[in-house]
Amino acid sequence: MKPNQKDVEATRFKYLFLLPALILIFAVVIYPFIYNIVISLSNMSMSHFHDWQIVGFRQYAKVFSEPIFYSVLGKTVVWTIVNVFFHVVIGVFLAVLLNRYLPGKGIFRTLLIIPWAMPQYITALTWRGMFNYEYGAINLILSRLLHLPMVQWLKNPTDAFAACILTNIWLGFPFMMVIAYGGLQSIPKELYEVADVDGASGWQKFWKITVPHLRPVMIPAIVLGVIWTFNNLNVIWLVSNGGEPSDKTHILVSYVYKAAFNLYRYGYAAALSMVIFFILLLFGINFIRKTRATEGAY
Amino acid sequence: MRRRGISKLKLVAIYIFLILFTAATLYPVVRVFSISLRPGNRLLSTSLRIIPDGATFEAYRRLFTETDFLRWMLNSLIVSLAVTLTGVIFASAAGYIFSKYRFIGKKVGLTALLTTQMFPATMLLLPMYIMISKLGLINSYLGLIVVYLATVLPFCIWQMKGYYDTIPDSLHEAAIIDGCSHFQAFYKVILPLAAPALVITALFSFMGSWSEYIVAAVILQDQSMFTLPLGLKMFQANMSTDWGLYAAGSVIVSIPVVVLFIILSKWLVSGLTLGSVKG
Fold it and tell me: How many structural domains compose chain A?
């Protein structure tokens, strides 16, 4: 074969292989995405399901003019920061503990991954049962073993939100632990030996050696963690049973899910989806820019 | 290993802490197991014992003989296998081109795939739900499979591309110089080397569909079409009578997933970090 023929074959192969996937992606991702934009500009709802029409940016105006958007956004930010903070702190702490000479540490490492491995919906439903006032394990432990007052976990908005956060902290720390553990193993041992010779304390070693070396590994993990937590519908929806009590425990994604599938406000829900997407996109772009900037400084 | 400077006392303290922490972490899992063993008349007990009084496998027997559990399992299997098969076939092909060939729009395409990971759940679900209901595919396997593909496919393509990136270009180039067609170079040389990535991509897309509740709750309304998550949620909602069924079902559904996940977690993490380094 002449090289020219080879090139033709390469091109043909390339597009033949890519095309099916592109068509599929167009059908299940791009087309729905564009359709979502169209819906967000329309008045589509249960009563206007077939006879909907384009109404411009009215739904977006509604999103930003309703005070509930800001209170739910505030809760989402609290939810994300609290969760990711505890995921990272618990995860790194455990990874540091496990990264020393410790016979049998493999068993702990395996057992501590289980919260991550459990199907999320089972975790959420099980914790909902454990938060039951009368029969749930949490109140039984509080009152019998610790002699503390029982808490109306699922009846009071603040406690219900706390219950969701506790559940999500439980299922999220193992991911950070595994990532941090991998990062710790790649730190050269000699650095610590030199620090020992220089008489550094354990705390100094942690801040001067461990933290700077963990940073490049942890930062992408934290970004992923923020996006996942911000978008985590399972835990909020299943632990609070769809925002109970009285829709006071929503984060943005659960609020928009309810608007779409319980209240049939399609246009509004599509607009709100776009807003959530742009919030995350801005966060992502901003993050990439920041890390590029710090990379230059090293 | 930093053996130096650690006193015996400190080591004991670490062990005690780890044992207590692990016990607390595993408690919810133990609790489900314990509830699944409760006899029917003591479902709502306030006991904290791990093996309950009069422990029995009654709930497991009822689950298989008196409920639709097996039917739900079949539904879940059909949907998850279809998603996995489609996802892996398309992703192994597209990922290869993204990794080894140059074409217009490659960078844009990869970035766009990554951007889909920032979509809130309703972003594609709502338009798809409307399309599916207009096509009369509510309550069908196909409707659910299509929505799951939308979430799984971008991730699968990235995962496969990341793995192909670790295979040196010289391999398929040498095969082509030796007279293989491009397809033969892919099929005979590269694909066998990528087998581990195929297995992992397949298992993760399978487990994703197997454990999905939110989308299924929108698409499936008929109880006979339920997948496992919907069925278990139905038991859970009726705490006084079906709490034991929920617990028994959860134990059965979770065990294979948890075991697989623990085996695979090592590769998932390396895949994620690889993706972030290259991306």
Answer: 1
Is there a domain that residue A50 lies in?
no
Contact criterion met (CB < 8 Å) for B94 and A114: no
The answer to whether position A3 is within a domain reads: no
Inspect the interface and report whether the beta carbons of B218 and A261 lie closer than 8 Å: yes
Residue A96 touches chain B, beta carbons under 8 Å: no
Range of the domain at A178: 67-297
Tokens of A289: 């820019």
Whether the predicted pLDDT of B279 surpasses 80: no
CB A123 within 8 A of CB A114: no
pLDDT: which is higher, B211 or B7: B211
> What pLDDT score was predicted for residue A292?
63
> Per-residue pLDDT tens for B249-269?
999 999 988 998 888 877 766
Q: B250 and chain A: CB distance < 8 Å anywhere?
A: yes
Alpha carbon of B158: minimum distance to chain A alpha carbons (Å): 13
DSSP bridge pairs for A54 = A42
Using 50 as the pLDDT threshold, list the residues of chain A that sit under it. 296-298
Query: Which residue shows structure tokens 């739910």?
Result: A72
B153/A102 touch (CB, cutoff 8 Å), yes or no: no
Residue B256 forms contact with A (CB below 8 Å): no
Beta bridge partners of A42: A54
Distances (CA, A) of B264 to A47, A77, A84: 48, 32, 23
**What is the domain partition of chain B in residue ranges?**
8-61, 68-278
Confirm whether the ipTM is greater than 0.90.
Answer: no
Residue A187's CATH number: 1.10.3720.10
Q: Considering the domain boundaries, does residue A5 fall inside one?
A: no
Residues of B in contact with A168 (CB under 8 A): none
Which residues, other chains included, contact A100 with Cβ-Cβ below 8 Å and sequence gap of 6+? Answer: B1, B2, B6, B14
Q: Is A43 helix (H, G, I), strand (E, B) or coil?
A: coil
- For the B68-278 domain, the top CATH level (class) is mainly alpha
Which residues 136-175 of B have a C-beta within 8 angstroms of A? 146-147, 149-150, 153-154, 157
A54 backbone dihedrals φ, ψ, rounded to 5°: -70, 130
